[in-house]
Amino acid sequence: MNVGKSSLFNALAGRAQAIVDSTPGTTTDPVRLIIEIEGLGPVVLLDTGGIDDKSTKLGERRVLKSVNAVNQIDLALLVFTDNNFGPYEQDFLETIKAKKIPVILIHNKSDLTPLKLKIEDHEIIDFSAKNNNTAPILEAVKTVLNKQNKKPKGLLDGIVKKGDTIILVMPIDASAPQGRLILPQVQTIRAALDLNAVAIGVQVSDLKQALNQNPQTSLVITDSQAFKEVNAIVPQEIALTSFSILLARQTEEFEQMLKGVKTLDALKDGDKILILESCTHTVNECVDIGRTKIPNLIKNYSGKNLEFTIIPGLQELPENLAGYKLAVQCGGCMITQTQLKNRLLTAIENGLAVTNYGMSIAYTNGIFKRSVKIFKK
């Protein structure tokens, strides 16, 4: 049944972004669009295919994509029409609730069939794409998201205080973006400014000079790829960690990542490892951290014949995770906390240990304890 999801999507977007047709199944692959909602900020709208077409293999694949999209969202707008909230909608509602994702029910085409249905514990918003009155929906969206948006722990909270001097080691190499810093570096600089701390940015070659000029330095934060070189330069009395580990600390799975990295000591021939690289970018295979450097570090450290699977962007994890022992997640700076959490939980629920890039690099270089010591105060 065509319930008008894409019509609602276009109404919220303020333009004809998604194809609208009376033919059921018009939307196949999810359509994404970034919009700005006053009082909330930038949000990503995601228009999925339907959930009731299981008559063909193609229909089943379309439904699976819609179900998998749940792992990427912070809020669901579940659309139905003609007062018909059937088994497909009920099953999908239960799937959303199981993920602890808030949901708003939308009864569409109210100009044809006024809302009469009541669903226990759920308010329903009556909507008609004919008049495009999205105000009640937007107000509900703002209320729900503002309520659940807890301010995350600051990157440097608890480890840096006002007046501290910290040094950020930011290599400008073949993997560095042209003309800008990467997001974790920018976020860390902002976090230092928020705390009225002094942040000094250097490359590895200038680190020794910076330390000599700033003997009061309390913390050095490095790109994880430079851990080994930086560790050799920074005196033991100065704390050392990485941008990647700082990002991991913001997740609820931080402690599990700290424990999970020890799985590197228990790997056997034939074990499989997931590399979760949340960026989507063209790469030079020789220098890419996720596709080349970390697999090589792990293989050299373990001495085992291992199989690595690279999962870029928000691509779904393999359906069959049998044989996988470990998932190594990047910092996750380009995805939301919900998306990151759901990727990690999928791995954990399937029996995989989880860790992240910075921890695995520190561990294989013998400096893991030093790299996380500052968080154990």
UniProtKB/TrEMBL annotation:
Residues annotated as domain Hydrogen maturase F dimerization: 155-250
Cross-referenced CDD domains: Era_like
GO cellular component, one term: cytoplasm
One GO BP annotation of this record: tRNA methylation
Molecular-function GO terms, alphabetical: GTP binding
Ranges where the Hydrogen maturase F tetramerization domain occurs: 255-374
Domain of life of the native organism: Bacteria
InterPro entries the record matches: FeFe-hyd_GTPase_HydF, GTP-bd, HydF_dimer, HydF_tetramer, P-loop_NTPase, Small_GTP-bd
Matching PANTHER family: TRANSLATION INITIATION FACTOR IF-2, TRNA MODIFICATION GTPASE GTPBP3
Protein name, UniProt field: Small GTP-binding protein
